[in-house]
From TrEMBL:
<dbReference type="InterPro" id="IPR041628">
    <property type="entry name" value="ChlI/MoxR_AAA_lid"/>
</dbReference>
<dbReference type="InterPro" id="IPR027417">
    <property type="entry name" value="P-loop_NTPase"/>
</dbReference>
<dbReference type="InterPro" id="IPR050764">
    <property type="entry name" value="CbbQ/NirQ/NorQ/GpvN"/>
</dbReference>
<feature type="domain" description="ChlI/MoxR AAA lid">
    <location>
        <begin position="240"/>
        <end position="312"/>
    </location>
</feature>
<dbReference type="Pfam" id="PF07726">
    <property type="entry name" value="AAA_3"/>
</dbReference>
<dbReference type="InterPro" id="IPR011703">
    <property type="entry name" value="ATPase_AAA-3"/>
</dbReference>
<feature type="region of interest" description="Disordered">
    <location>
        <begin position="316"/>
        <end position="343"/>
    </location>
</feature>
<dbReference type="Pfam" id="PF17863">
    <property type="entry name" value="AAA_lid_2"/>
</dbReference>
<protein>
    <submittedName>
        <fullName>MoxR family ATPase</fullName>
    </submittedName>
</protein>
<feature type="domain" description="ATPase AAA-3">
    <location>
        <begin position="47"/>
        <end position="176"/>
    </location>
</feature>
Length: 343
């Protein structure tokens, strides 16, 4: 496993992240925070749900991220007639061998792009549950491991759009974060007309990192230190969603784990070897809001899950960094060792 004492290796990994970031931002203009969140989810071993209205670049973002990494990529176009076996694979009888042969489905790739995932039936959507959580597929009693790294980047239109099915709660809970791209600024849209008007920028996009580089990055993120008060802060935020009067379904323990992993990845992207409450705060809405179900009264009052999470962030006390024993195990509060920049 990569450790933070391996300075040369960390320098290489930091450079790798910057190459991927620059590559994606060359396609998605004016949305650096969206690109950063996508990289955060990738390094935290999570899955990303991109939700927005048609035409704002959801699929473009997923493709740009996939093409920037030299790994296996498969795209699944979710339609009402898509079958679960199209995703997971199927066992077919081989006449010559007189035995069943497994034909892998589209899920057997390192980055899987699920385009308009909520246009398929809930039964088909459920075919992703095992693979997203356990990184394996079970067919006819036989279990097949999925490659590493493994990430599902799914796009969906808002549930108000015609021809969509709402994602089941169990499916939403397996996505580490949800992001909305939003409309570009006037300047970014003008630049988009120059860049995208004549050619497709994806055509010239070349891989800037290898799959094994991403595996090393993931190992480095696992080594990020999280002090006990920061862990407690994440737990308090998630627990508050379970008792909030405007919510009929709060966040799960899996959400707490995802929030902590994302905070560690965010710290690594910022060049720190330890996570701060700021990392947790910055990711709380993206990680928690899509898992929450508002009550009927809250919906009548036009209260969104995002607003509830923002309210919880304002009400939950933030741990303060202290010297000495403080919040961490070392002399500088949050970190195990005196703070130093990575790379």
């Amino acid at each position: 496993m990569t450790t933070y004492d391996d300075r040369a290796s960390l320098t290489d990994l930091t450079a790798t992240v910057e190459r991927v970031r620059s590559s994606v931002e060359g396609v998605i203009e004016g949305k650096p925070e969206v690109v950063r969140l996508s990289l955060t989810v990738l390094l935290a071993e999570g899955h990303l749900l991109i939700e927005d209205v048609p035409g704002v670049g959801k699929t473009m973002l997923a493709k740009a991220l996939a093409r920037s990494i030299d790994c296996s990529v498969r795209r699944i176009q979710f339609t009402p007639d898509l079958l679960p076996s199209d995703i997971t694979g199927v066992s077919i009888w081989d006449q010559q061998r007189r035995d069943f042969e497994f034909k892998p489905g589209a899920i057997f790739a390192q980055i899987v792009i699920g385009d308009e995932i909520n246009r398929a039936s809930p039964k088909t959507q459920s075919a992703l549950l095992e693979s997203m959580e356990e990184r394996q597929v079970t067919i006819d009693g036989q279990t097949y491991e999925l490659p590493s790294p493994f990430m599902v980047v799914a796009t969906q239109n808002p549930v108000e759009m015609e021809g969509t099915y709402p994602l089941p709660e169990a499916q939403r809970d397996r996505f580490m974060a949800r992001v909305s791209i939003g409309y570009p600024s006037a300047e970014a849209e003008l630049q988009m007309l120059d860049v995208h008007g004549g050619v497709n920028p994806l055509d010239d996009l070349q891989p800037v990192a290898h799959a094994h580089d991403i595996v090393k990055l993931v190992d480095a993120v696992r080594g990020v230190h999280v002090a006990d008060p920061v862990r407690r802060y994440a737990v308090d935020l998630v627990a508050a969603t379970r008792t909030h009067p405007d919510l009929r379904l709060g966040a799960s323990p899996r959400a707490t784990l995802h929030l902590l992993r994302a905070a560690k990845a965010s710290a690594a992207l910022s060049g720190r070897e330890y996570a701060l409450p700021d990392d947790v705060q910055a990711l709380a809405v993206a990680v928690l809001a899509h898992r929450l179900l508002p009550t009927a009264q809250a919906q009548l009052n036009r209260r969104t899950a995002e607003q509830v999470v923002q309210e919880i962030l304002q009400r939950t006390p933030v741990p303060q960094q202290q010297s000495g024993m403080g919040l961490g195990h070392g002399t500088q509060g949050y970190g195990q060792q005196p703070p130093r920049r990575l790379g």
